[in-house]
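quick one
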Amino acid sequence: MTLVLGIETSCDETALAVLQDRQVLAEAMASQVAAHALFGGVVPELASREHLRCLGPLLDGLLAQAGVALADLDAVAVARGPGLLGSLLVGVSLAKGLALASGAALVGVNHLEAHLLAPALDADIPFPALGLLVSGGHTQLALMRSATDFEVIGRTLDDAAGEAFDKAAKSLNLPYPGGKVMDDLAGLAEPDPGLFPRAYVANDNLDFSFSGLKTALAQYVAAHPILRLPVLADPASMNPASLPEDLARVCASYNLAVAETLRIKVERALDRAPVRGQVRGLVAAGGVAANSMLRRTLAGVAERRGLPLLLPPPRLCTDNGVMVALAGRFLFEAGLTHGQDLEAIPRGRAVPRDFLPVVRA
Ligand code: KG4
Ligand code: ZN
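structure w/ KG4:
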């Protein structure tokens, strides 16, 4: 039985969870979406301050709810990157203090790997698996050899899939973060497959680039200004009946373009080494994995290829503490832990495998 505390502060969610093996004993989360919505995107300085303000009270509530004392913990797992450096430092500092005070092991978790492991809460991931991570900050394809051994085989060259949604929504004056809003609106209309391009697929690689798609939408909106809401919509009072005609079709077509772009690269990865013939499952995770069109598209790929598709439930697609605790549990059980010199890794730098030497009994 392994008891792990998970700490997530890499972007704009302050999230904690206590996991006993696969059972979530308690979860706590303070979302900063409202604080950043005013600016139409995450403001790093504000994010760090909010983490610092929220973490202490959240932790007290969490431990009480779980009925767990610090001294009971086997490991304190923390998302150590990639992410916003100032935000990560808040979580990593707390994790170091708690590990010192409790005697639990300190485990630094790669935030991207944690996303891809989220489906393991409910099901065994059949390794090796192909993982598609699509979040607000990242788009990656990874060969998941095991729960602790990932090889990145494709990445985004510019915007992440979630950013492509958020920036498109911004150009329409839809509320931030726009992915969920565009997904909901898309459900009201049929997509026009020819409206937007499949971005960056006429090449031979597994990388992604969504800037062309974002520009295509911006140009379409410039040519059809009626689509753009007069003022930034308030999510609480948005009434689909009062929205510009055709907005839903534009959202559906954009949704389709993103989902098809991702499908093309996933299928390409499945067709070539080191994935071809090797993988036993397809995993998708990250905020955009909550997208209904993408979920349907990937289900089609998995069915045609005879592979199981593993998706986290929508609440575990966006940043959360459970995925960090779960990834930390896999590392801890494999003997992979960190010392007090654990570094936070900003976005753009590879997360090192700098574990303490494994001590074998
Ligand atoms: O995984 P996440 O919390 O971000 C990072 O860790 O970077 O995901 C947030 C992203 C946002 O860009 C949001 O717009 C997008 O996920 N998102 C969606 C949906 N729900 C959230 N995008 C498309 N469709 C959705 N249903
Ligand atoms: Zn994330």
